[in-house]
Amino acid sequence: MSPILAQAAERPSKIVNPLVLQRADPQVFKHDDGYYYMMASVPEYDRLAIRRARTLAGLSTAEEAVVWRRPESGRMAGYIWAPELHHFDGQWHIYFAAGNGDDKFHIRTYVLSCTDTNPLTGKWSLTGQLETPWDSFTLDSTTFVHRGVRYLCWAQHEPGIDTNSNLYLAPLATPITLAAKPARLTVPTYDWETIGFKVNEGPALLARNGRLFLTYSAAATDYHYCMGLLTAHDDADIMDPASWVKSPEPVFKSSPAHNVWGPGHNSFTVDENGRDMLVYHARDYKDIQGDPLFDPNRHTRVQPIHYTADGVPDFGEPVANGPL
């Protein structure tokens, strides 16, 4: 990166949407080292890259460091989807989904780990495949700590259930092993969750105002893609599916007025002033030629989260392109 670009990436500036072009399934978080870190799916589905900046706006020009590329053949040589970067147990971990070389849709979840301080320049090694009760389509893992326990939430096809993916939750024993039988939190049943495909995927947790708000994405990855919401009280048994209340309507969906289509696969972060921010991908047009999975123009976008009088997030609608 040139000195000018490096300075621009560090300088506080105005967020302009889209924040990062052609980066889907974005995860952005502010680490305790003061940097914002970002990972996302790339259109080629062939590598894992991390970028970081001192400001949210700086992510738009921050240089990406490719920390892993898929092998030429064999396991993990297929589609590489939806990475997430986390730091716990004194290490960095990347959860990501990968297909096989001879079956790109043989999607399973894997974990890479790094003990170095800087994950962009550190050495990464394969920890292994996530172990769940079923050897089936598995993706979109996220992890969080609640009341001193680290949990993993992910999407998976459960044999015997006629859906593409449901959401599951379990405490973690190690980065790749569960400490308990997973709880099935939600199955796509509403009409808006089952357009094109029967999908609940891309979970992300926001803990605020005495409650846990677990967003997820639903439907096919075209303009029908949207966000749903599960809510639980902070003191509830979150491993009991009955503790979670599911919104009957999507909480974030396409905006014809702002020409933003298929918003979803979100994450949460805070801006430099501590304001809660929604991070998500969407397209700038409604109609797609061919399979939407291979349309590269799902762009990373951010916008502030507002709250109702009783403390529930009101995501509103996707904001139009331009400065926030």
Automatic annotation (TrEMBL):
Site residues, Important for catalytic activity, responsible for pKa modulation of the active site Glu and correct orientation of both the proton donor and substrate: D140
One GO term of the biological process aspect: carbohydrate metabolic process
GO MF annotation terms: hydrolase activity, hydrolyzing O-glycosyl compounds
The keyword Hydrolase is assigned to this record: yes
Keywords recorded for this protein, A-Z: Glycosidase, Hydrolase, Signal
Keyword Hydrolase annotated: yes
Similarity remark: Belongs to the glycosyl hydrolase 43 family.
Name of the protein this chain belongs to: Beta-xylosidase, GH43 family
